[in-house]
Amino acid sequence: MTDPKANSPNIDEPTPTTSVIDQPTVGVIEGADGAADDRLDRETSASDGKPLEVVEKEEDSPLCLEYATPTSVPLHLQYVLQEYKNSKLSNAELLLLLIYMVALESGFVENQSFVEKRALLKPVPSVGCFHVYNVRLLSRERVHYTKDFEDTGFRMLLRILLDNSCPEEPAITHKLQSRLFAVLLGDLMMVTLSPVAPSKEPGFSTCLSIGRYVLNVQLEPIYQRFRKLDELSLQLRQQLFQPMRAQQLLSFKPHLHPSLLGLPLELYDKIFTHLNNNQLNIVANVNKQLHKYSNEFKERRPQGSLMYLV
């Protein structure tokens, strides 16, 4: 007799799975950022050869810290925590890592990391600050900071990321840099962001409760200890990073240009009414948002109108 299972595929045997991959991928991002993110994966895996433990796929994880939950955090936070997987970090140091993640999302970078990764970084326009390629690239290495006062104080040197049109001569490098100081006062962390000398511009400060954002319990993965990250992100952006970035950008006396972005929706129809179809096509080529608005307006515009016939 022949065994009927001998010639049939084994459907009961489970397919092996693993959470450790040799070359972490970050999904597909539209346009040039998709190719850039693929290049990021190849370059980082080729440079260090270290496997990364990715808990979530990109489509399941939030883009930035503001939308994180106790069970789902951005990939760049997972990457930086992976660098400290075998290290014992205090609650204060974990909060410091969260502060640095918000700094990355706000267009800042630790100065030594900038020097090491400068050739790979993408330009960041003055009108924005978040570039997913830069954030994920810079989060794949340890954060460079200094401990002071018997581990009750921390400091790091930051600088802002700019686009290619901004000058970066050595004589004005200090205008791009700032010092982040964090001092522990019991369960509180006083955080100050100050310009470097010889700048006479003011600095910015805020106070954080460590226990409010980092639970004093042992949980795995570590990010399950984090709470209220939306509140933390908003406070740091509004009180530290956005004011400092705006202050440093204004020190270059940039030329301001008008923009159609950020207007109330009802104003677009009033503006587009004065444009003919050729002009609307030009507006549509600026970006996806204006492309959508202009196409929707052309569909609503009466075909017998004078501007439609022009």
TrEMBL record:
Compositionally skewed regions (Basic and acidic residues) per UniProt: 36-55
Gene name of this polypeptide: LOC111601561
Polar residues composition-biased segments: 1-22
Descriptive protein name: Protein nutcracker
Domain F-box as annotated: residue spans: 257-300
Chain intervals for the UniProt region annotation (Disordered): 1-57
Organism expressing this protein natively: Drosophila hydei (Fruit fly)
